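ingest -> validate -> predict -> emit
validate: passed (alphabet ok, no gaps, 317 aa)
predict: started
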Amino acid sequence: MVTPVPKWAFRAAVAQVLSRVPGGPEVRYVMQRYVTRSLPFPDHELLGRFQIGVEHLQAIRRHAPNFDLAKSHFFEFGAGWDLGMGLFLRAAGVGRQTMVDLNRFVRPNLVHHALARLRAFVASPPHDFDTTGLELSRLPTSFVANEFEVDGALRELGIDYRAPADARRTGLPAGDVDCVTSSLTLEHVPLPEIRSIFAELARILRPGGLFVSKVDMSDHFSHSDGSIDSWHYLRFDERTWGLLNADMLYQNRLRASAYLDAATEAGFELLEVDRRYPRGCDPDTAPLPKVHPTYTAYKDRRDLLAHKLYFVARKKG
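emit:
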């Protein structure tokens, strides 16, 4: 009897193959658009991403209540397919944004879709979606542009989209940025590169500027395979995980302390640290998951069990 391949393992294998096919982002777009049909993002996922924008705004209000968004320069790395965070911050009144991606992912039709859904969410807010400060008048009614017109159309919205671009070397002047946002990106970046990115963020932020970030530390294969949990990928040794961990869906498996240590090493002052856990998981009493001995070295069980991290940091000075 042939044992069926687990869903997560099949996805990992497909990602490995596609990571080696020439045409990277274009192949990935075609697969997600026409095969898995995960693009454009469904409403629940788009709303979740806009909710992260709400968290960012609330954090800014808590720690910089006198922030003038209209006169501020925001920087986001990991802009994505539809620039949803850029559109959200535009609706909030942010006057200037620089958004970068290591590869050029943006697609005009996906930007238009995200814009249309954001307008709908603001006009008729879903449950628990805080629209404080969001104004439809700041958003266009549509986004119509071909591939050659995208950058110019985005600049009209105050968004300077740069891709391919490296967040370790932005080319921006020192102290030019008021706030950095990072939304579900850092978990896809190796630790040495995270340290380099944080050093660059500390350089481009003005003294007193904020860095707000949400990180998803769960095994991303668990999002589509209910047979595995958030910590499933922690059971593999580095060599085995290296065989499973495709460039296209790279996951660094870092725990919260690694990100926080990198931020403090770069000179940031941590203002808020919020470790989050799966529903029903009490970090003080929950049984520890099966993990490779590499991870049993974590002395803080809360650090091991946390599957999400939200932090707010400030550049000193």
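Residues 1-39+220-249 form one domain.
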